[in-house]
Amino acid sequence: MAAKTSFFDAMVTRRSIYALASESPIPDERIIEIVNHAIVHCPSPFNVQSARAVILIGKEHQKLWDIAYEAAEKLFPAPVFEGLKPRIAGFRGGYGTVMWFEDAARFNVLEEQMGAQRWAGVRDKMPQWSEHSSGMHQYAVWTALEAEGLGCNLQHYNPLVDQRVQEEWKVPVDWSLKAQMVFGKPVGPPRDKTALPVGERVFVHKS
Ligand SMILES: Cc1cc2nc3c(=O)[nH]c(=O)nc-3n(C[C@H](O)[C@H](O)[C@H](O)COP(=O)(O)O)c2cc1C
């Protein structure tokens, strides 16, 4: 990626792609390498390194979306579920999913390392900083996968699927599922998107 696409350009290429085929333009090893790279290099509060990723490919990926289908069928009234069915089928039709977790146990370690007094000053912030860090990891991988020709979309079927996911992939109970990033070969364009004027969102003060 770095050799071919600048990060500046990759920010534009990263879009939500829902039309995905069960193929990949890059080898599985490269997908895994990209996730590993993000896990090692993305930032986390006090370098707590609480992000966890479980990569599902092929039939394992399909299993996740079968779990989501069954859970949604049980939970939602029929008209809502009917609307969800084609969406879930679309995710299942992709090539893989990265499940993103945050490991709460790492924050217990951090608390011990910091000591009671320092921890008291930041404890309230940790839940949101954990989410921020997870989002940074997700963004890095989303952007990198799409820069290499995959399409991705980001889903949140947690907590609906949490228990089955824990059982199926032996996920530690301390890991909290944050997002499911579906990927596959893009077979359709991204949806239209509008952008608010930058001048309403960015302000510069310089002296
Ligand atoms: C934190 C976050 C949560 C999102 N959750 C979902 C989701 O649950 N389902 C979905 O289809 N897209 C989800 N998206 C994708 C956004 O809808 C999408 O990024 C936005 O509309 C801009 O489109 P783009 O990704 O093509 O730039 C999420 C994006 C972010 C950043």
TrEMBL record:
GO terms for MF: oxidoreductase activity
GO cellular component: cytoplasm; nucleus
Pfam families in UniProt: Nitroreductase
Predominant cellular place of this UniProt entry's protein: cytoplasm
Signal peptide: none
Protein known as: Nitroreductase
Alphabetical keyword list: Cytoplasm, Nucleus, Oxidoreductase
Record Gene3D superfamilies: NADH Oxidase
GO biological-process terms attached to the record: cellular response to oxidative stress
InterPro entries (UniProt xref): Frm2/Hbn1, Nitroreductase, Nitroreductase-like
Record SUPFAM superfamilies: FMN-dependent nitroreductase-like
Subcellular localization: Cytoplasm; Nucleus
Recorded family membership: Belongs to the nitroreductase family.
Domain Nitroreductase: 13-185
